Amino acid sequence: MIVTRFAPSPTGYLHIGGLRTALFSYLWAKKNGGKFFLRIEDTDKARNSVEAAEAIVKAFEWLGLSYDGEVIYQSSRDEIYAKYIKQLLDEGKAYYCYMSKEELAELRETQIAAKERTMYNGKYRDFNGTPPEGVTPAIRIKAPQSGIITVKDKVKGDVVFNALDILDDFVIARADGSPTYNFVVAVDDALMGVNEVIRGDDHLSNTPKQIVVYEALGFKIPNFYHVPMIHNHDGKKLSKRDGATDVMEYKEMGYTPEALLNFLVRLGWSYGDQEIFSMEEMKELFNPKDINKSASIYNTQKLDWLNSHYIKNMPNTELAELLTQYDLVLTSHDKKEILLDVIKERAKTLKELAELAKEILETPTVYDEKAFKKAFKEDSIEVLNTFGAKLTKADELHLPSDYHQIMEEVVNEMNIGFGKIGQPLRIALLGKLSGPGLDSVMAIIGKNETMLRIAQVIAVHS
RNA sequence: GGCCCCAUCGUCUAGCGGUCAGGAUCCAUGGUUUUCAUCCAUGUUACAGGAGUUCAAUUCUCCUUGGGGUCACCA
User: Fold this and answer.
1) What's the CATH number of domain A369-461, 1.10.10.350, 3.90.1150.10, 3.40.50.12780, 3.55.40.20?
2) Which of A120, A266, A268, A460 could anchor a disulfide with A168, C-beta 3.0 to 4.6 Å?
3) What is the pTM of this model?
4) From the alpha carbon of A157, which nucleotide's C1' atom is closest?
């Protein structure tokens, strides 16, 4: 069985890059009928926050990504880690290190001065004497001092590291007893049965350390997939300064989960020429063997395109439901079908959609000055009055075609071009020269509101 | 700086020794639309450079260059 996980540290919101690796892990598990876990890596008490952990869970909810079982918090697993640390200690595979922080810093400096690699010097590796007073020890693992460690990465291929270049006896438990990342990540993945680790490229370099832990504990090493980073326009790691990197910001901006997920799945992964993937298709078609090796640049133009695609293809009832989150309540509006059909072709985001709806629904309070000058000529009043008179007489006006017919009558009777009525009417109805078809707008707002807007624009003009 | 990874249109990508180097997005132009948007059509733009291997390299190897990641009692 395929078991994957997403293991963020709760130091902030769910990041767009994190979401992508989470999605990959999720899809790979789901495709295979496996399990996908969410594990919060909160071993560093100083930096974590519960709010951040909650924010991550919330984001998962919004996106409809589910995980198996409960959220796992590493902070609640201390006894487990303690047990394995003790085991390593007993077996002589780990040891207490009494080096003080000052001493460590000093060591660093001399190494830097000598242009050597900065690393722990193994001072307490084989220590039998009396420990120094006043130092609470950290625990270090005995890492191989020679030979090679090969990370069998399924994205990058075999990556060979020389122990001499990268390894030292790294700390697995701090002086306060809390275990460190490279230790717990290996322990948890092994204990949870995670056999496919999909994560960011930035973890590749410390994978050898985790392999050291796996081997010391006799655990089976999982398959690794190190997914390339997502960069900003400058080719650097994506950060807060690059605009929206918080997943929930996309909700606020009016993006749908479908669009965001579809956008992200195509960043670093592809299935031939296909661009549109439903969740079902993603689950069916995703395969980490098709993950790219190179980093990609974060550019949301395609996200806009996808979002408008999903909006256009969304059933109106669902759309109306979603729009309540953007301050637009349409439930009681009798022409909401027409309204949504008209505006969903025109919006890139749900937020825009809500604004477009309001532009139609609300009586204009201002008229675009330039547009007014351009479109509202001397004869416009007469045209609008003629149109208004016909409206007054007509009943049974429901559909856009009903209104269109009356517009045509005016055009024919007065022997004018369509623009002669369209332009001023557009100013009257919307206050500007662009927007949806006027017949639809009138059908949506109804006869009375149409008359009112015509009267208003004439009043304003004189 | 040491170690590691990466390199096809502006961007996301297809390609897996022989292709007019394909698609999408963006941009531009034209058509549709009373307008705008949608939609449709058309177009511009790419194999970082240099050596090999081969009858043949975007594709395999090496070097150079460029970019990125990582080097903590952070994750």
Assistant:
1) 1.10.10.350
2) A120
3) 0.95
4) B5
CA distance A336 to A316: 8
Do residues A307 and A348 make contact, with C-beta atoms less than 8 angstroms apart?
yes
Mark whether A240 is an active-site residue: yes
**CB < 7 A to strand B: residues 331-360, chain A:** 345-346
Determine the longest span between alpha carbons in chain A, in angstroms.
110
**Residue A201 Cβ under 7 A from any strand B atom:** yes
Find the helix or strand (DSSP H, E) in which A62 lies: helix A50-63
Is strand B in 7 Å reach of the CB of A106? Answer: no
A348: nearest nucleotide, CA–C1' criterion: B37
The CATH superfamily holding the domain A1-70+228-313 is HUPs (3.40.50.620)
Q: A240, A358, A370, A374: which one is catalytic?
A: A240
Q: What is the CATH number of domain A78-227?
A: 3.40.50.620
- The count of other CB atoms within 10 Å of the CB of residue A436 is 22
* Tens-digit pLDDT string for chain A (462 aa): 999 999 999 988 999 999 999 999 999 999 999 999 999 999 887 788 899 999 999 999 999 999 999 999 999 999 999 999 999 999 999 999 999 989 999 999 999 888 889 999 999 999 999 999 989 999 999 999 999 999 999 999 999 999 999 999 999 999 999 999 999 999 999 999 999 999 999 999 999 999 999 999 999 999 999 999 999 988 888 887 787 889 999 999 999 999 999 999 999 999 999 999 999 999 999 999 999 999 999 999 999 999 999 999 999 999 999 999 999 998 778 899 999 999 999 999 999 999 999 999 999 999 998 888 888 888 899 999 999 999 999 988 999 999 999 999 999 999 999 999 999 999 999 999 999 999 999 999 999 999 999 999 999 887
